[in-house]
Amino acid sequence: MATLLHLFFYILKVQKNLQLLLASTLLFISYFVSDFIIVSDSYNTAIHGIFALFDLFTLLAIFLATYTFFKDEKLEVGVLYTMIGLAINTVMFFFMYIDTYIYENVTRWLLWYLYSYLVISIDFIMVASLLVNKDWLFLSFLLKKIKNN
Fold this sequence. Notes:
globular; mainly alpha; single chain; 6 helices
């Protein structure tokens, strides 16, 4: 959805923000491909590990593309939120992979509930941030405060 909006804005010359277009396109491609692979291999027990790798590669792709093509520009807030969200999602998928695949745990516990709520919430926050490109959770503000101290 964010990809189509930014592509539409770019074509109509409403907003020519290539950082947001690139980040939303990479996020869309990653989620589309990972969902396609998971659906075609629905009995894979290492699903969380696959998602962790996809999010990690997406994070690296966005990071490299942003700092290669836009190194002289200010990092857009929507891209920052997407990078932070992908990092948190990667950690959560990795923990779930360890719990379910390596330790073969099938009993629900706090990590599973935390994973369920966090991943869905962060996915929503990433897309919303790419759409509005505002620091609505004040993460950019907090990072600037920490960097200045």
